[in-house]
Amino acid sequence: MGNKMYKYLLRAQTKDGKDIIVCEKFVSTPSALHWHNYIEIELIIDGNGYNLLNGNRYDLSRGSFYILRLIDFHEVHPEPNLHIITMGIDDSLLSEEILGEFTSGQPFIYKLNEEDTVIMEQLLRLCMDENNRKEPDKRYIRHLLSCILLRILKLVPDNNNTFPLVEKPIQAAILYMHMHFRENPSLSELAKIAHYNTSHFSATFHKELGVTYCEYLNMLKINYAKELLCSTDLKVTEICFECGFTSHSNFLRLFKEKTGISPIAFRKKQEEGVGARV
Questions:
Q1: What gap in Å lies between CA 79 and CA 93, rounded to an integer?
Q2: Which residues have a Cβ under 8 Å from the Cβ of 132 and sit 6 or more positions away?
Q3: Angle between helices 263-277 and 248-259 (to 10 degrees)
Q4: How many Cβ atoms from other residues are within 10 Å of residue 220's Cβ?
């Protein structure tokens, strides 16, 4: 929080619509602030730099490992160079159990010891080698991916995950909402994910969470708007649409309804709080 270096957000997309991409890259220039429409896994093989992730700075060196969710925004600054293995995956490839572990809580960025760095590099290179084949075995890659994610969960078992505990069909829909709230998933779309008809899904959702589907969706958007207000210098209008709202006036009304103040007042209050702690 307090970093006011951001001017805009860029949406990065997987190449050619593939559900998995794995590559090795050497980075010598900073990236612009962006987020992805897929989950990104990166391991620093060599070099130094830092990652501005959700407004916070994390130093990077060999063994730095992070998993970027669709809600995470970041920019990478090499100092002067970074050697990275990166993997982009569509969230639909992950099981509900694993996806739930990575959907909420703190950002997933860690410094691995040398032994775990070597193991993680080997797993990622196996994924890359297989994915580069003319006819890659996607099932094999998915198993390798599961090994990567489960090993990380084993190394850092407590991520303060705040994902709600609900019955499994509703959980699948909520997982999708957490990942795709900016796309305004419809009630019927979520009911289909839960394998319920629309009316039964709506009633069960309200019973399990105590709020309607629409209220929960707006809560996710408002919480994300707070993050962007604290960590970027995007204009309020830009934040409104980046969070998935289609009406600026509706955004302002809901934000004040949930926080008691306007977005501009909220940003100013956060800036004053940061200044008072310096």
A1: 34
A2: 22
A3: 50
A4: 19
Two tokens at 147? 């090994």
Structure tokens at 13: 């997309």
CA-based nearest residue to 248, from 264, 259, 260: 264
Tokens of 63: 């063994």
The Cβ of residue 163 has, within 10 Å, a number of other Cβ atoms equal to 16
Ordered per-residue pLDDT tens for the chain, 278 residues:
333 333 333 344 444 446 788 999 999 999 988 888 889 999 999 999 999 998 889 999 999 999 998 888 899 999 999 999 999 988 877 777 777 777 766 788 999 999 999 999 999 999 999 999 989 898 898 889 989 988 888 877 665 555 566 777 898 899 889 889 999 999 999 999 999 999 999 999 999 999 999 999 999 999 999 999 988 888 999 999 989 999 999 999 999 999 999 999 999 998 887 544 43
| Residue 77 three-state SS | strand
Q: What's the whole-model pTM score?
A: 0.78
Amino acid in position 147: C
